[in-house]
Amino acid sequence: QVQLVESGGGLVQAGGSLRLSCAHSGRTFSTYAMGWFRQAPGKERELIADLTWSGGRTYYADSVKGRFTISGDNAKSTVSLQMNSLKPEDTAVYYCAARVRGPGPYEYWGQGTQVTVSS
Questions:
Q1: Which pLDDT score is estimated for 30?
Q2: Is the confidence at residue 26, as pLDDT, over 80?
Q3: Among 34, 46, 45, 44, which Cα is nearest to 5's?
Q4: Confidence class of residue 22 from pLDDT cuts 50, 70 and 90?
């Protein structure tokens, strides 16, 4: 059983920073890619950043580009998200996710961690 666990969420003022981390528990497994999604109240879950281990390719949504940085450790299947210059519109539940089989839908998800940015 693969379980992803996020940590690092919380309450921060606009302009501040937070760092989210994601680790897995259970059996060792290798991943093709890991990423971060978020879901704000009344909105759909969106992919905001991901990291494909092969070639070290990264993706960032336009809304976070230049402010958020994804990094990780392939051997440990861990991933982090450094979030700087946070805005109230970044308030959401943030989810870690992993792809194992290759390109396609994310197969494993964490429970989510709340990030609240006050104005």
A1: 83
A2: no
A3: 34
A4: very high
How big is the chain by its Cα radius of gyration, in Å?
14
Instruction: Return the biggest CA–CA distance within the chain.
Output: 41
Strand bridging mode 10-13 / 2-7: unpaired
In the block, residue with structure tokens 């060792």: 28
Q: Exposed, middle or buried, 24 (CB in 10 Å: 0-12/13-18/19+)?
A: buried
pLDDT of residue 23: 92
Could you write out the DSSP letters of every residue in the chain?
-EEEEEE--EEEETT--EEEEEEEEES----SEEEEEEE-TTS--EEEEEEETGGGEEEE-TTTTTTEEEEEETTTTEEEEEE-S--GGG-EEEEEEEESSSSSS--EEB--EEEEEE-
Please compute the mean of the pLDDT values over residues 35-61 and round it to a whole number. 95
